[in-house]
Structure formats: C-alpha cells, structure tokens
Amino acid sequence: MNPYASVGPIRLSLIGIIRSEWIKFASLRTNHLVLSFFIIVSVGFNAILCFGLYRNGNTDDLAGLHISELIAQMTIMVGTLVSGVLGVLSMTHEYSSGLIRSSFTAVPRRLPVVVGKAVILIITASVTSLVAIALSYLAAWMFLRGTGVDLSFYAGENGRILGGVVLYVVTVTLLGLMVGSLIHTTPGALAVIIAVAFVLPLGADLLHNLAVNSAPGGYALWQRLIFYAIELLPTEAGEPLVTWAGTTSDLTPSLHLGIIGGVAVMWAWVLVFAIPALIRLRVRDVA
Predict the structure, then answer these.
(1) How confident is the model over 195-216, as a mean pLDDT?
(2) Cα-atom radius of gyration of the chain, to the nearest Å?
(3) Residue 216's pLDDT is what?
(4) Is 6 left (phi over 0), alpha (psi -120 to 50) or beta?
(5) pLDDT at residue 103, rounded to an integer
(6) Which residues are within 8 A (CB) of 253 and not within 5 positions of it... i.e. 6 or more apart?
(7) 3-state SS assignment for residue 63
(8) Is 11 exposed, middle or buried, given 0-12, 13-18 or 19+ CB atoms closer than 10 A?
(9) How far apart are CA 199 and CA 194, in angstroms?
(10) Least-confidence region, from 167-171, 192-196, 249-253
C-alpha cells in the first residue's frame, strides 16, 4: 500500500466551516474590543439616561414611559454603528491579511464561507445584544423602580420591543457583512455603512423638515414621494420594531409599513448588497 497515494479532495462540511469561522472570529482581538465596546457603551448610556430621568423627571411624565423603549433608544444608537463595523471587519480583515485565499482554497465554492460567517455573526450579535439588554434593564430597575415607569420585562409590548432590538442589531450586522463582501476594503465598506446608517437618515430629516415646512395647505406629489422614500431607509424602516404601537404622532403621509413591512425593507437592503457581493465572490478571483 502506497502511503503517499491520493485520497481525493477533502470536503469540509458546513459544520466544519462554521467551526473554522468561529476559530477565526474568536482569535481576532478586534472583535473582542468591538463587542465589549457595544456592551459597555450601550449599558453606560442607558444608565445615564435612567439616572437623568430619576433625578429630573416628574411622576406624571414618567408614568407614560416603558422600559423597553428606553433601553431600545440607546442600544439601537450604539448597536447600529458597532454591529455594522463588526460585520464589515469579519470579511474585510481576511482580505487585508490575505487569509481569504486560504479560506477560499479550502472551500472553493466560497458561498459556504459567507454562510459560516453569517451564522457566527448572528449568534454573536444576538448574545451580545441580550447581554446589553439584560444589564441595561438592571440599571434601569435600580434607578427607576417606584417612579411609575413601566418596568415589566415582557408585559404588553415590552418583550416584543426588546426582541426587536436583537433582530435590528442582527440585521445591521449582516448588512455590514454583505457590504464588506462586496467592497473588500475596510475604509470603503465602513464609509458605506456609515452613509447608510447615519448620513442618509440625517439627510432624510432635513428633507422631511423641508417638505413639511413647504406644505402649509397640503402635500404635493413630490413631497409625498419624499416621505415615502424616507420610510424605506433601513433605520427608518426598523423603527416599528423598537417602538410602542400607537405612540407615533407624525401626521405626514406614510406607507404604514408596520413591523412586518419594516423587517422586510431592512432585509431587502441586506439583499441589495448580498446579491452583487455573492456574484462577485463566485466569478472573480481573490484580489
């Protein structure tokens, strides 16, 4: 028997690919720093917010507040940036270090590598969000118990909103992964994520105010189109996920996406980047 005889190509199972992606993810110190930043900053901001309400709020105003919306505000603000960065780095780091060549050599079909990264990011983003929510809830309970704020963790829509925070963060993380898979360079991919998550919403607010102020007697077609387009931004579409139903007082024209429609729009943004990213991975050589 020839000990050097070929045994044929070695095919990794999806579980094996996910395991290898976890090893790469856990070995990168930047990921630990990013996740720690998410937890520390979101919990810190939530604690400051709750302490401020405790010191300066009056009983009548606090009675109408819900713990879920308080936690969601700061967690989403921090999580949008951090989770987007995490998703981007999970792919662009491999391109910058050259590790992507080894990954695609071991998995020539390439798509399972992206799937493995997505699975790791979904689990990591979900667990990190749950930890941040739990610690933020503890801080809120310490400061706001006995103030009239709804501190129930699951009653009413509190449970749905806190679950929406997790889904929101996971979706933005996958959006970052797909942007990184398409652009490959960290600065370019981060610029796109920042533009989509922060610059576009700021511009949308300006357009929204312009359209409202220029329509004292009703809304023209161009103004309605602006309102509709704003709702299709990922951050705006995700608002129903993390807000109490019936609390919106905006009377401008609306698509009324709701929770399901908002989630669909957010995932449509993921697909907008995923489709060309996956096509590029299949048809182009590693640069």
Answers:
(1) 78
(2) 22
(3) 62
(4) beta
(5) 83
(6) 219, 223, 224, 227, 228
(7) coil
(8) exposed
(9) 7
(10) 249-253
